[in-house]
Amino acid sequence: MFGLIGHLTNLEQAQAVARDLGYAGLADQDLEFWCSAPPQTVDNITVTSVTGQTIEGRYVESCFLPEMLANRRIKAATRKIVNAMAHAQKIGLDITALGGFSSIVFENFNLNQIQRIRNITLDFKRFTTGNTHTAYIICRQVEQAAPKLGIELSKATVAVVGATGDIGSAVCRWLNTQTDVADMILVARDRARLQALQEELGRGKVMGLEDAMPQADIVVWVASLPKGIDIDAESLKKPCLMIDGGYPKNLDSKVNYPGVYVLKGGIVEHSLDIDWRIMRLVNMDVPTRQMFACFAESMLLEFEKWYTNFSWGRNQISVEKMQAIGDVSIKHGFKPLLSVVEN
Ligand code: NDP
What we know:
Layout: E1 2-6, H1 11-20, H2 31-36, E2 40-48, E3 54-61, H3 67-70, H4 74-90, E4 95-98, H5 101-108, E5 116-117, E6 120-121, E7 127-128, H6 131-148, E8 157-161, H7 166-178, E9 183-187, H8 191-201, E10 205-206, H9 209-212, E11 218-221, E12 240-244, E13 260-264, E14 267-270, H10 278-281, E15 290-292, H11 293-304, H12 319-331, E16 334-336, E17 341-342
Parallel strand pairs: 1-3, 1-4, 4-7, 8-9, 8-11, 9-10, 11-12, 12-13
Antiparallel strand pairs: 2-3, 5-6, 13-17, 14-15, 14-16
Helix pairs in contact: 4-5, 6-7, 6-11, 6-12
NADPH dihydro-nicotinamide-adenine-dinucleotide phosphate binds at residues 100-101, 103-104, 130-131, 134, 161-168, 187-190, 193, 222-225, 245-247, 266, 292-294, 314.
């Protein structure tokens, strides 16, 4: 059985979801309450592959909220993640994806040192970050959506915001070797890590966000921002394709400008309906079929019985592993989301 460990994007959304699920008492609770709430199994899932194979899974809500990081409630944040992992293991999940910020909190606060949670010894082989599949799907979105907008990759500059991250560095590796992208711009804060990536790739310009934006035909957003930011759409090239893979989204509000196209990054669509309710709660456009690519990774590992932490650690995602998970993604009927929104 597979598992998904997820979280909501902010307190307001958490309150709305609690109301929606019929927990009226939780709908008025503040951040303090969510800091002490235990993990919950909130959905039972059945997924059928286009091969005919059917698998079962569970969605575990960790009760983590990105505001815990913004408010320096680090201990609460880390407890949410390890408690959710212990819960997943206790209910017998064989392979579980650490969605969104779960793996970021795990890595940034070295939670691999906390293996014992009450009477459970965490077996890290039962967890995957899902980042290999996410990076693969974002790259396919670049390759497939750009030509539809008249952007030729061989003439295009792609800026990757969050380039030195786990997903961002994998996206850069793929674009560098598997496509004929003309130029790459690498954006993040830590200069030393940017230079190391530039050396590894053998190309790519290191730039700040404001300088990078006017030069990019395509922007891949994969920075770990607890809250989205606003950009100056007027300064962008037209057309410009923005692929926002952040969760929460990197872009705060809708970019309302002709010629600027926004695509939800790292989202896959399954070919068959899925019996679950969780994607309705996180406002997916087609909640019976669309989901985060990291969640789909744990489904793929379950379909293939690859019971191992396929994506683990930081900045170790190879193009070969992206291709391997991409092949089984196609085999089981998942496709990258390609419906671009022009505002
Ligand atoms: P990492 O922590 O590995 O990387 C984050 C990157 O963002 C780093 O390059 C970091 O570099 C950069 N960054 C952080 N803050 C800023 C800033 N203020 N300005 C510019 N760059 C910044 O994260 P992941 O790669 O694991 O995840 C990235 C995003 O993808 C997250 O929002 C996550 O929730 C989302 N995600 C989406 C999934 C999906 O299925 N769609 C699945 C998993 C994750 P530096 O610190 O040097 O600035």
